[in-house]
Queue: 3 jobs
Job 1
Amino acid sequence: MELNEALAKLAELQRKLYAYQAASSSLYLDGTTVAPKDTAEGRGVALGILAGERHKLFSAPEVGELLDFLWARKDELEHPVRRQVEELRRSYAQLTRIPADEYMEYAMLTNEASDVWHRAKEKSDFELFRPVLEKLVAFNIKFAGYYDSTKAPYDALLNEYERGVDMKYLDGFFATLRERIVPLIHAIGEKEQIDDSFLWRPYPVEAQRKFSDYLMEVLGLDRAHCTIGETEHPYTLEFNNKDVRITTNYDEGNVSFSMFSVIHEGGHAKYELGISDDLQYTCLAGGVSMGVHESQSRFYENLIGRSLPFIQAIFPKMREFFPEQLGGVTAEQFYRAVNKAQPSLIRTEADELTYCLHVMVRYEIEKQLIGGTLAVKDVPATWNRLYKEYLGVDVPDDKRGCLQDSHWSGGSFGYFPSYALGSAYGAQMLRNMEQDIDVWGPVSKGDLSQVSNWLREKVHQYGGLMEPADVVKNACGDFDPTVFADYLEKKYSELYGL
Amino acid sequence: MELNEALAKLAELQRKLYAYQAASSSLYLDGTTVAPKDTAEGRGVALGILAGERHKLFSAPEVGELLDFLWARKDELEHPVRRQVEELRRSYAQLTRIPADEYMEYAMLTNEASDVWHRAKEKSDFELFRPVLEKLVAFNIKFAGYYDSTKAPYDALLNEYERGVDMKYLDGFFATLRERIVPLIHAIGEKEQIDDSFLWRPYPVEAQRKFSDYLMEVLGLDRAHCTIGETEHPYTLEFNNKDVRITTNYDEGNVSFSMFSVIHEGGHAKYELGISDDLQYTCLAGGVSMGVHESQSRFYENLIGRSLPFIQAIFPKMREFFPEQLGGVTAEQFYRAVNKAQPSLIRTEADELTYCLHVMVRYEIEKQLIGGTLAVKDVPATWNRLYKEYLGVDVPDDKRGCLQDSHWSGGSFGYFPSYALGSAYGAQMLRNMEQDIDVWGPVSKGDLSQVSNWLREKVHQYGGLMEPADVVKNACGDFDPTVFADYLEKKYSELYGL
């Protein structure tokens, strides 16, 4: 085989993988937005077959041979191509280590589990979910060995979501956070509570939709390349760097849920839209890791979106959308309301300060589940004990407890820490951004272009060209969780006059 | 190979073809409904690759061997399976007779042509479209030889859209129609024109949307399996018999365009939703031909939708949606307005009577183009001459002339006659339905269930199990175009007091 021929095959392989991904994404998007209610079965058949075809395509021996051939000549490859081969070799090795029958069995299990979880959550019935969760945990322990048998199983899983991260790293990270956050929460508990009652008024969905359009404009999201839809759970879905979709969910009785979900998903979308054209239709075309992705979404949502300058910039316009609801409210009151810190039960509704504690509960449980020191049947009791210990709240039922998240039913163990890591990466990026440019002057005028440009240049454009840790390091130096802790301490001390 | 093994492979092949079709449909649906404006390129890449993968899958030599193996043992196969093998052998032979490079070149050409046609139509500039149209015609003449070299090229193309139909058949059919329709049109021209001015008032889109929902309810379309969307050109898209989508386009200045497009597409949807479960995920799962499909859409649109009993049934409710616009209008006036016969320029806006003349113009041109007796450069002049001759109207520009339809740019030559055939099949089905059941009693009460049941039993359920001509024959005996002519003559004589 000639090198040029091999490179052409490499490009073709990646374009095919892109096409299968686009097909599955399109069916998923349809299923969660406009598809008629009782149509899941036929879509499931198509999705299953496409996943099988993709698996067959990518796990073929010729692919292994092609990648080996190219790797043997890696010194002749340009950097992006070399990186593609490196990434594809890693995925190929992982995929081919999982026996095909186990792969298919697992795909069917997660499909079923999602259904069972939905029903179990609705009925708040953990026992219904328990048998599938047991199977999912067993599969993940086994798969961890396929991923990397030299690592502890949970370390191998963590590495899948954020390469280079392990329990030792996270134990230190979370210990630092707990040490700094818990005293803050206690101190805030002694203070007068912030009034956020005006967030909980009737906000008509039609006006909220227009407000979303406005927010997307402020975020600088080009509607010719990014639309917004409505789904039960908000998400971002990328086809390529010219075609990204975000979704939200409107709560007629609260204005901030959708507002910050739009800004959050908008941050994910900015990342995908900012990835370099050169990487399109290759395996490097998406965001590099869950942690880095969350750093972008939470950057826009919290560091910018929940800042006083940003709220001041958008509040006059916001009052035009909701003149009755916000008539007597000032920008500063609104800023304080959306930053009210209060230990609570639901992760996705948690404030910026207590959020990481929700993640820590899940981290502790996953560590023990995958480590084999916690039986699935004991998850609810452990969950409830940890919520009491970390957040001081009593969990009334499993629906608002260990059944609240979809991740485990989707087979994701080791994903949750990415949320906390992303928040910490973001705080560090902000520190460096502030050293490089005037962040708050333009933001207080509603101009996010400088912020966006900095993030595009330092983070977005690279896609998967670098390792996640290197992307972070490139943007803001060595990872240091105290920067995030300092940020929280400063913000909440000011808010609550500590 | 064992027979059981071969049957399993046959089922697997068809499920894969279904999955590729579902993927492409989903991307197409997305692209025409909710996708951001500037995202066609990335979707095109995915669609092209998926088409290529589907082609590779289906044209593989093993598929030919499998089908030959099964055909050799056809006497042992159950009827539906035997029919699947027969159909797949036909498609396989056709696909493999087209050289792969020509197939790909043609796919790229139609992709480009659609774009060029859009621009040419916008500018009313035939010269812009001419070079691609020349290529499209040349390709179709060549492909006709691959389809069936024993037939005249246009016969081979016609056979693709409506198996068993050829020029001899259509010449007779259209001659009968012309002979009967043209005198009717002349007679109507001498009469006082029907007042349809109230159709052309401002009808707010939001109210039209609600009216569409109501129409779907009357049609008996289960919204859990069929939704309605909005696109530039209305269409029906089926994933399977549990998942069908229709679209419409609202014109703020006219109520009947969207009304009858919803009923028309609803007729297509009824067909797809009525196909037997046993045929799902096989090549027999869709409607059997374009002609039979149009027989269903035009049955609901014209024979039912434009009938007096139907209008009388829905009109009270319709006036609730449009109290100001239809306040002083009676059901009978509305019935007369939506049946106003008037030679015009645009096929898709034509009334039931003159519609077939629009089709005949296209048929004559296609016959000569593919037959090699008409040069592409002479299409506009021929078009304009035939419109004058058949319909008595002067074509002011190519935008409202030979550039109005998308079919040729999509590579479809031989499709148009299906519309007229469908209308004629429908009239014959109505005749037989009236012999079997009380059609108009229930319809006048807004109850279409008996009509739907008859069509499901006689037509829908069979999907592709029978040849198109046999489906028609099974439902209403030997094809006889005078039934359609009689129907038109009776309806329009009454309407205009001839």
Job 2
Amino acid sequence: MAPTTDNLSPVVALAGGVGGAKFAAGLQETLPPGALTVIVNTGDDFQHWGLTICPDIDTVLYGLANVNNPETGWGRANETWDVLTETERLGGEAWFRLGDKDLALHLLRNNWLKSGATLTEITDRLRLTLDIPSRILPMCNQPVRTLVHTDEGDLPFQDYFVRRRCEPTFHGLTFVGADNAVLAPEVAESLQTAAQIIICPSNPYLSVDPILSVPGLSDLVRASAAPVVAVSPIVGGRAVKGPVAKMMREMGHLEHLPLTVVEHYAGLLDGFVIDQQDRADASRLPLPTLTTDTIMTDLPSKRRLAAEVLQFSRSLMYS
Amino acid sequence: MAPTTDNLSPVVALAGGVGGAKFAAGLQETLPPGALTVIVNTGDDFQHWGLTICPDIDTVLYGLANVNNPETGWGRANETWDVLTETERLGGEAWFRLGDKDLALHLLRNNWLKSGATLTEITDRLRLTLDIPSRILPMCNQPVRTLVHTDEGDLPFQDYFVRRRCEPTFHGLTFVGADNAVLAPEVAESLQTAAQIIICPSNPYLSVDPILSVPGLSDLVRASAAPVVAVSPIVGGRAVKGPVAKMMREMGHLEHLPLTVVEHYAGLLDGFVIDQQDRADASRLPLPTLTTDTIMTDLPSKRRLAAEVLQFSRSLMYS
């Protein structure tokens, strides 16, 4: 079916961690079941305790299944910590906080990966088990690992993000393995048939760039007839969560951070969504811009923002 | 130091699962700290959820650390089951009951194995963390896997033992990989310097034979100047726990099961310990025999049996 402009048309969202998962949950609430596909960053994936951990996929899974911890944004609600407590007692590392319910998923995924299933297949199996109506697609099935260049040397993503809490000064990124990543048929097909493409309010450098680093993926976004809209992860000149604003400062961008986001996505966007606290920046932006409240504190606010962004995106189809 | 006959002399026990771990705990209570080395069956080891699980090593670790579940004999006391519950919910297999504390150890071990540590090194690290004064040695560092031949075909050990609850009729065993197993220096040294060698009341076929299948190991037991004593796993013509009597019946041994055990260990033993309920069988046994109460229900009964067996074993040094 060719893309149409009604509510049933497929919507593709590119998402990283907590902000992306929140916005994707709003889209899912707003759209008919099955209309949403979320392409998720796997650059944060890493090996821990011998298991393959996929933090962004899990944050999106838990968020869309509404079993996430609403306080932290990541991990499970009503989590227990019996394994971690005992592992620590027996001499294991505990800097990465793995709860029992969370670990259950890692164990299953790891076992299925060992049995030869792809991350795409496993993620689909999990979202169906968790009764998630949206498709969730890892950006690719090959390992792509974000390496953070800092003033303290190169740090694997989780070392930078969790262990060092983003404290080292950021110089740049390499997505190790991206050259060998292969665009999955499911990812290509979703982008080719998308009626709307939305870049979630995720960290452009850490969460969205790894997705765009998969060979051929950004070409499909550019080639799409669908409007491409990004939601700014900046609110009031700062990040809602995470290190994006700190990283921008460390790259010399001290003000007009929404413009920095737009320039970063150069050539990709048809529209941009900024927070009302940044309305002074709107006039600097060289593309159609929706200014609204982008803070998502609960399901109604996620739903409202998603509906506004979808409406704004649809309006760009006729421009 | 050459072996002497006092209480400080090194004692080596060969042990399998629950019965072996109970008796080893009694030996540890009776002997001075550091005098006991337990060589443990690894033929039951298997891969589950992508992890290497070593049931007998863990039963001995938990038993000697006094953190075992006294009701089941295996697993941890005060265990929780959050991971298993969630794994089952997410579509995973749950036939092998992995508790949270137990799983913590499997995760650590698996990770350490992946990092290149040997099972011997890992087991020693764990027993030190668990404040166990005795040495615990896996029978070897290479994978040896017990395959059970039954009237329903060949079954990997855990499939026979846990999943099928030993129901299929037993025809025999193969210890797959035993030909390539290498006697570890620690195992060899412990047997060469042992003042007493004790075969615990473990299943001769499933628990002790895999240990004896490691090339060179049974030769060291035979060559040792130390008395070798086995404690019968049979009480009143039946197994205290597990399928040993059922297996004997299926091999055509319908009565005088203590004699069957002695004949099975032909050429290895200097003495044998049978339960008082089997005293009628004592006269049939072609070697020095201690008849006593072999049921271990609590720490005092484990300690009493261990002390009696050690005294009996020492008496054989002068025979």
Job 3
Amino acid sequence: MEKIIGLIDAPFTPMKANGDVNLEPVPAYAAMLAKNGLKGVFINGSSGEGYMLTTEERIQLAEKWVESVPEGFKVIVHVGSCCLRESAKLAAHAKEIGAWGIGAMAPPFPKIGRVEELVKYCETIAAAAPDLPFYFYHIPAFNGCFLPMLDFLKAVDGRIPNFAGIKYTFESLYEYNQCRLYKNGKFDMLHGQDETYLPSLAQGGAQGGICGTTNYNGRVQVAIGEAWAAGDLARARELQDYSQEVINVICHYRGNIVGGKRIMKLIGLDLGPNRVPWRNMTDEEEKAMKAELEAIDFFNRCNIL
Amino acid sequence: MEKIIGLIDAPFTPMKANGDVNLEPVPAYAAMLAKNGLKGVFINGSSGEGYMLTTEERIQLAEKWVESVPEGFKVIVHVGSCCLRESAKLAAHAKEIGAWGIGAMAPPFPKIGRVEELVKYCETIAAAAPDLPFYFYHIPAFNGCFLPMLDFLKAVDGRIPNFAGIKYTFESLYEYNQCRLYKNGKFDMLHGQDETYLPSLAQGGAQGGICGTTNYNGRVQVAIGEAWAAGDLARARELQDYSQEVINVICHYRGNIVGGKRIMKLIGLDLGPNRVPWRNMTDEEEKAMKAELEAIDFFNRCNIL
Amino acid sequence: MEKIIGLIDAPFTPMKANGDVNLEPVPAYAAMLAKNGLKGVFINGSSGEGYMLTTEERIQLAEKWVESVPEGFKVIVHVGSCCLRESAKLAAHAKEIGAWGIGAMAPPFPKIGRVEELVKYCETIAAAAPDLPFYFYHIPAFNGCFLPMLDFLKAVDGRIPNFAGIKYTFESLYEYNQCRLYKNGKFDMLHGQDETYLPSLAQGGAQGGICGTTNYNGRVQVAIGEAWAAGDLARARELQDYSQEVINVICHYRGNIVGGKRIMKLIGLDLGPNRVPWRNMTDEEEKAMKAELEAIDFFNRCNIL
Amino acid sequence: MEKIIGLIDAPFTPMKANGDVNLEPVPAYAAMLAKNGLKGVFINGSSGEGYMLTTEERIQLAEKWVESVPEGFKVIVHVGSCCLRESAKLAAHAKEIGAWGIGAMAPPFPKIGRVEELVKYCETIAAAAPDLPFYFYHIPAFNGCFLPMLDFLKAVDGRIPNFAGIKYTFESLYEYNQCRLYKNGKFDMLHGQDETYLPSLAQGGAQGGICGTTNYNGRVQVAIGEAWAAGDLARARELQDYSQEVINVICHYRGNIVGGKRIMKLIGLDLGPNRVPWRNMTDEEEKAMKAELEAIDFFNRCNIL
């Protein structure tokens, strides 16, 4: 199965001031991401507030993104939900419209406690789009599914034919490496924590990733991989340290989903508010965040429209 | 606002062998519950696998239950979901079809970390059906929302006009009592753990509850309240101890949602399988559970069709 | 084995301003507790900052308490520690000086993850004082030992001859009752959460308890049991509600160990500061706490010297 | 302040079959560690079952290690305990006998919840040996102290004069790097997870570490750093992957404290059993572990006596 090379962005979902989904900015958004070095998008995931969207909205977004991306730019549709019938419908739809792949995180309810439950969950979704690569999105901090991923890989191997790999958004580079080494790299282990891309590269060789901060800091994040590939460790470190500085700022503003989405407005691509129960940033918070970003010269290093 | 007196049942969602929702058993189910002393139902909640149903299925179930219940038998519709637009739609629909009330648990994703987020979440839903009483369903073990409920009551008081109270499914009888005492009992604190109904009565006086095991053990559970009201402590204790014995059994079979639903088949009202990712009981497990139930003379004490 | 009837107090450890242990107030402390209806003390436990004392200090305190108590007033010595050799030494010493019993909570390090580990731990300690009743002190919030207590009872039964029972400081009245019912009450299940004494009585009949707030609020706590025994439910409820009001106050001041110890000063028995890493109350905090206590008429209901 | 270069070993505590501390093997142990490339020892810590030792045993071990090590080989004494008076005594003793430094993890009881509490705890210990460098040992999985380490560094800076740095045994290489960058590397950030040494080197430049598996796998672990320093990434990766393979094995046998200690016997330096509540390995388990280690050719790569 094809492995992803380079970085995939996890876009925010554009919304109008009243909270409605806003499809209009998608083409410009897609063009901006491609221009800044991203290789695709993983839509309707956590950054995209996928769980806060109706099924119909998720369908419309998937269609718009597939229509909007340049040739060769991958669209992976996150189709996970608590309701497998919705997920299967979204998976079949993703196939139908020509998306490149699909993915799903573990459902937050009921909390998954056993590998067998997670396999069954993924199997049901993957079977609804058997020709598309399926990625499991491992982000236990969001759904409480702290299962051992190596055991999970062993369990899906030979059982889910279109299982492609894992978007690994967890701190254990030990487990990550063990998964990467499984059957000499049988599965595609996509790195999923922008703040530790360099250490992961050191351990694991060429690879792809799915990123949340590349929406606004993609040039820097892409350049980490390039510097590493070019053997320029000093530059890779400088860039990774800078990536962390940006992440330090968004941590002051409720993280990427809230703080990061608001940065988009500051770089010229207003994507509107977050949905309840996220607490939207106030104007004062926006101003303070802007000052923090200016202090690290962010607006000269961020993505270019 | 009217307070609930007596016990409300949280029904399972009947399903066909293929996993489709099965509306057909609902009238018989409703009649059975009324016959065994229950005062209403809280549908599409955790026992009802509400999060695993599509919005359309939840709508159909709500309609069927409202049509099927006897005069004066309350239908409260759980309308919580991760997507507030779906929840608001379900709330408005509940009002439209003449449901008695609505309720919602905290969303499992994103995990609610602040009282203000929870208030906003509940406010948005409650506002979609402003004439119906709204109950918050507190079950932190399922969604990680371990916020202090007294602070929550203070925050909703005066802000959500149709806020009725809390279905309290948590172990702290201290917090439960503090909530009950708030403004001399301003809010309706519905007890939500069948295994500790008697201790709760001792502390709190007459009150209602919402129960999961009353689907099959309602006669016993109702009788606890009656014995207590009649001043017969010895009998109340015997009944509560028995209620715990039944709960001991379902704890061996993945709890009420899985084990309890299968008991329905054993008492003559087959409600079909659970949805993935719940692991359905095997036939061997069913047989073993039946033997455990026989050993405590369950089939002579359980609900009568 | 004898079962404890009535309430045992968990005393604070008196300290001098410089943090040294202060044995001098112990006789007056013991007399005060007896005068206010307590039946014994459980010393060097969590309220007594036992883990923050040297082994030598724990020995001196045990000796002083045994010397100081009136006839028939029980002294149970908490001997738990991370180092079993220290614990065994303390247990043997307790026997030697004529203490009534011993107890131990699970060690906080290493965190106990299996029933077998906990049994072995308790067995080793209990064997060092085979003639004294041994109580396991279950307080998982303090040490992370969330093991099922019924399984634990089954495992110690027949293996630890002097195992007397459990001081149960956890919220599950369901598990508490199941333990109480084990072999028709074979083991002594001491209630350990002052805020839910009444609900526990309703469920379980006559019983003992070990209490932290009885240091200053013992008259009220003892009266709950008396009112219940006399069949005066209304009064029992009023008293339990009042007990909760006092607990509400100490919750504002870092709980019983910090806030409660400072109350002792306010009622006339200054026991000095807490040890690091506990944060001692400031004078401003003391003043604010005093005002809160006055507002609930505490100083007319509290213990009398 | 001097920064540690190279790897410090965290030794096990040798015990006799009856569980008594056994000082006899210490000189051979120290010589073996030096011979295999280690630069010092961090004694009486988690690998050394420090919390399960009496104060007197800890004192004897410290004396024996200081006497036994070769010239220039550092002895850092872990002096942490729940009782600060014991810790201060151990710190003063470490100074007195000529240890190189001291360290302490957060106490597991009471659980530290605030930076100020942790600072006060460390300050009290560090002040008892003001001429020795003090290291905080951050291992939150063992004591529940999940505080942000950058905030902690800011709080100790200027307040604890002999604060040297942190032994960082946690998964977040993001936080680790942020601490490392604080004031251009003011504090010594010792890496503390053997399985991710290479990724950490990639991110952070030359540095030291404190290791648990170097007791038996020190040659490999030391060689990772050498390969990296020599610019041989392929070899560094091969070695780190191998290090993880060894760790995979010990994870099957209750981790380093239990499984790792038993490996010492297999390489010819029997250090005896673990203390309760650790569950010692059975002979069958030892045999199975040996087979697993042979399968990865461990006995040709492990430490040499």
